[in-house]
Write a sequence for this structure.
């Protein structure tokens, strides 16, 4: 598929601005700690999985021959463990991160680098920037460009489908939805979906049962994780009068598939097929 010249130029500019030159060409990192699952996904996708020596307990590491050590979760990195691993660089994202922990690591001489995945453009540019940071720009650019192509293909295939209104739910205690300015909210129109949480001015608004009943969505996608997972009937019994409930259109799906990284286009394609049927 051909990408329009303007789109490609925009991608190249964004990727270039996001690149972080922490290393000279002759001292590229060989030992990386990843503190976000999406960064781990990206490193594996660009062929740098064998460089990962530390990761979070939420990262998916089954594909790696040498399992990295677990060094914390999203917000609480175990600094002593990280220091003991002697990483060349620690990679993290701007979302849900504690700057204080990273200031501590930097004071101990550990290089750190942050990336943002808040919008579709940032997803693409950050993948490229991660590659530039660790000396694998060519392979990272290829992955980033492929994702950009897949986003365009999704829009071509699904944006003309009869629009359906729905909520994307990230958590149920309290109920947290994907707002219009989140990366998921931004991409929903590409697959023929009207975001029922579109009036929110924040990326992930907290909503109530009454908000759902008032919106009366055609469907609900439940991405809540861990111990929150139940059958749709158990989880959403308080909205029995909602069309989505009455028509059996509450879909419990795997939140990990919808991380803002290399797996996202496939997850959106699957979601579009669930909502609209095959095209």
């Amino acid at each position: 598929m051909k990408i329009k010249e303007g789109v490609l130029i925009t991608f190249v500019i964004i990727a270039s601005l996001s690149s972080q030159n922490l290393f000279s060409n002759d001292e590229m990192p060989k030992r990386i700690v990843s503190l976000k699952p999406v960064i781990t996904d990206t490193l594996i996708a660009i062929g740098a999985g064998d460089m990962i020596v530390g990761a979070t307990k939420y990262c998916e590491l089954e594909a790696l021959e040498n399992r990295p050590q677990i060094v914390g979760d999203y917000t609480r990195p175990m600094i002593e463990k990280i220091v003991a691993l002697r990483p060349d660089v620690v990679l993290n994202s701007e979302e849900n991160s504690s700057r204080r922990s990273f200031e501590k690591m930097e004071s101990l001489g550990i290089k750190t680098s942050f990336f943002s995945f808040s919008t579709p453009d940032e997803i693409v540019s950050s993948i490229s920037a991660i590659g530039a940071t660790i000396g694998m720009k060519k392979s990272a650019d290829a992955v980033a460009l492929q994702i950009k192509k897949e986003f365009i293909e999704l829009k071509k295939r699904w944006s003309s489908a009869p629009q359906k209104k729905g909520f994307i739910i990230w958590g149920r205690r309290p109920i947290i939805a994907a707002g219009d300015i989140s990366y998921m909210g931004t991409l929903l129109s590409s697959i023929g979906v009207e975001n029922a949480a579109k009036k929110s001015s924040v990326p992930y608004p907290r909503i109530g049962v009454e908000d759902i009943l008032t919106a009366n969505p055609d469907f609900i996608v439940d991405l809540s994780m861990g111990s929150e997972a139940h059958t749709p009937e158990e989880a959403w019994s308080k909205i029995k009068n909602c069309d989505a409930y009455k028509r059996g259109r509450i879909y419990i799906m795997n939140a990990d598939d919808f991380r803002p990284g290399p797996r996202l286009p496939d997850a959106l394609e699957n979601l579009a097929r669930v909502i609209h049927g095959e095209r």
In short: The longest helix spans residues 137-158. The CA atoms of residues 82 and 163 lie 47 Å apart.
